[in-house]
Amino acid sequence: xxxxxxxxxxxxxxxxxxxxxxxxxxxxxxxxxxxxxxxxxxxxxxxxxxxxxxxxxxxxxxxxxxxxxxxxxxxxxxxxxxxxxxxxxxxxxxxxxxxxxxxxxxxxxxxxxxxxxxxxxxxxxxxxxxxxxxxxxxxxxxxx
Length: 144
What we know:
By secondary structure, the chain is of the alpha/beta class. It has helices at residues 2-13, 37-40, 47-59, 77-85, 127-143; strands at residues 20-25, 28-34, 67-73, 90-95, 120-123. The protein contains five helices and five strands. Helix 1 packs parallel to helix 5.
């Protein structure tokens, strides 16, 4: 999660919402990314989506079995759907997102029994550090 936070700080420096993601397989980092929505002018350029795409390229396929996704903010519905579709078995996130979180807060898409894949979720890892960075970012944004 420390590496995901470092990615979030990169996003912060770019004026992006500070969210970072890291994908680990068999103990090795295979992908890491941070939000680039503003930079790329792409609504899908969330840290999780970019990390999943990178991991797909590294592994040469779309199934991310035996992987763990670490992300600094609870994934939104789009990212939660991508996590399910990529067959990621384990998600670890830092801060909950009560307005858009789809992994337990607002919705629980990743554990919906109607879907063909469910994800084990661990939440709250380094939540305060992630929350502080997000609060600082949005406070500065409101000042502009």
